Amino acid sequence: MDLEYHPDCVYDRLVVRDGPSHISPILVYLCGQHQTSIYQSTSNAIYIEFHSDQIIPAAGFKMIIESGEKN
Prior knowledge:
Blueprint: E1 13-17, E2 26-30, E3 47-51
Antiparallel strand pairs: 1-2, 1-3
């Protein structure tokens, strides 16, 4: 993942929420550069928010979503 960095993620950000809506608890709040990580929801629903201010271009992000039993 490569998004514009700011300590408070005010310009570009990716927010994954642990549930079906914009008011579900935040699972992860990301901006800047991150290595591949695994985040696991507590149910069968996630809500994904992406915001970009179009000022500084970066590579963006790639997301792979899998479903299945917890190991």
